[in-house]
Amino acid sequence: MDIQTWTWGIVGFTFTLYIGIAIWSRASSTGEFYVAGKGVHPIANGLATAADWMSAASFISMAGLISFSGYDGSVYLMGWTGGYVLLALLLAPYLRKFGKFTVPDFIGDRYYSDVARVVAVVCALIISFTYVAGQMRGVGLVFSRFLEVNINTGVIIGMFIVLFYAVLGGMKGITYTQVAQYCVLIFAFMVPAIFISIQMTGNPIPQLGFGSSTDGVYLLDKLDGLHRELGFHEYTSGNKSKIDMFFITGALMVGTAGLPHVIVRFFTVKKVSDARKSAGWALLFIAILYTTAPAIAVFARINMIETVSNKKYTELPNWFSNWEKTGLISFDDKNNDGLIQYVADTSVNELTIDKDIMVLANPEIAYLPNWVIALVAAGGLAAALSTAAGLLLVISASISHDIIKKIVNPKISEKGELVAARLSAVIAVIIAGWFGINPPGFVAATVALAFGLAAASFFPAIVLGIFHKRMNKEGAIAGMVVGMVLMLYYMMRFKFDWFGGGTKDDWWFGVSPEGFGTFAMLVNFVVSLIIASFTPKPPKEVQEIVDNIRIPLGANEAQIH
Amino acid sequence: MDKQYQKKYWKNNLKYLTILLLIWFLVSYVFGIILVDTLNKIKIGGFKLGFWFAQQGSIYVFVILIFVYIKLMNKLDKKYNLEE
């Protein structure tokens, strides 16, 4: 069977599965819609969190990014996993004990202020919308390459699927579809990795494979050698400055811990100890992919260089011309010798490859069977759809719960709120789809922004809310606003060239916009603590809330407010 | 519930957090970034050690840290009768 038939078959099967699960687990109350009725098993929640978290970026782009940047790519590996340690130790158990529906709920109640709540809602919406646009684009990309439909048609098909199960099932439907999506995506990621690891090193475990040898030479040494030959920096050593590595890793870790769609997953379990457990399971399931990705990066890099470097253009395998059609690979024969020069020097280099295609093209480059290639397409879709659904839920809960129920119309009935939640989910899907079809040029920049904002706004406010009883609304609001404004300013100045723009040399302390979240977070902490120290203490009831969330006992009474 | 009693539980929790977060910092920021060049002089199989910590080792340690914390806290909850 050819790739297309396989792809339609596997993608069709997985989509039917997701819809079936959604019908079986549809939500009938706001509690079920927002937090799956708080009855999810910790392992199921771990699986769902892993799928929720691993987006099109993790599945499609990350290994490619590492493949092209080598050691520098470590910031993504450490940053996007280390955040779970912060979540498990500093946030998840306490937020679960607090026992409401959303992150702005916590901020609004802990800081006894609707201003704080609104600031939190604005942060949640900006973060979620920037993130979701990228997911819909990922869906379109997979469809256009593997099923040869127009990229926009792909986005629209994706919108309908997400719409169906997010609107019908709410958090409950999303949770169980995410469990299925994790299984699809991890299988799709591991099968080609294992195949290629055996092919190249004889070791079936990719994590060990990329440290083994081929024909008596260690794979990594061979790659370092190839890189030196072509003029790139050594694969296992980096280009970035240490301080920038440090700050980027920090921003990604803290940003991960502050992302509302991840945090809200820990509201769905039964008790506090389950919140800790599900963070552990989530990281374990994530680690399977994250420790495999650097292995794939190395395999793909070597395969790619060996396939194309100094080869005749006319004799390249089929995958090359397939990807050329999508515009993601391009060859410009500058010296007209018919050979491909792939080198670091841009004036001589003749080949440009989009980083995003490494994972998708990898099975083809390694001549794996057609069903494996189709499986990768289904995995990419699972990763993009599961994250999109989680984000859409945050958006709809922010609107129907945090804004409508808590601020505009507190008297709204349970039924009315559920209708509002579903309607806002529909609107959110349409906006996300619009972004997917007309991607703003700054999508890549805004993902860094989403992390930076989460780090600069939510993380300090939540951590101080739990660990510093004296923290009051004045301190928290000032901290969030200053952190957010600083982050936006830096991003706009250095990414969009506003406020006078600037180059690398103008970066503060040599920190790139991607790493600036760490800096803005530190400023948030300092501002919050200083302002709080000379403004009134929080009221007694609030101090009691803090005492109460610090002990695990009684988490189930807390939800009946 | 007795406030003093709760305070002791919280202090104990903070002690665990401090120790575990120090290890978290050590394996990623110290081994993976600050000392990476020194550690890269040591090779285990095909891996330079600093590179391995940055792309593999730190992640394994993160997973272990969370499961250790789960164990410690379950014990602590039991000791203070705060289990659900």
**How large, in whole angstroms, is the Cα Rg of chain A?**
24 Å
Order of helices and strands of chain A: HHHHHHHHHEEHHHHHEEHHHHHHHH
CATH class of chain A: Mainly Alpha
- Note the overall shape of chain A: globular
Q: What is the share of helical residues of chain A?
A: over 70%
The low-confidence runs of chain B, each spanning 5 or more residues with pLDDT under 50, are none
Number of strands of chain B: 2
- Average pLDDT of chain A works out at 88
CATH superfamily caption of chain A:
Sodium/glucose cotransporter
Q: Tell me the major beta sheet of chain B.
A: 2 strands, antiparallel
Report the sheet with the most strands of chain A, covering strand number, pairing sense and barrel closure. Answer: 2 strands, antiparallel
Helix content of chain B: over 70%
Question: Gist?
Answer:
The complex is a heterodimer of chains A (561) and B (84). Chain A has helices at 3-24, 30-35, 42-53, 56-69, 74-98, 103-110, 114-146, 151-201, 206-209, 219-230, 242-258, 260-263, 272-308, 318-325, 357-365, 370-408, 414-437, 443-456, 458-467, 473-495, 516-533, 540-549, and strands at residues 213-214, 217-218, 329-331, 351-353.
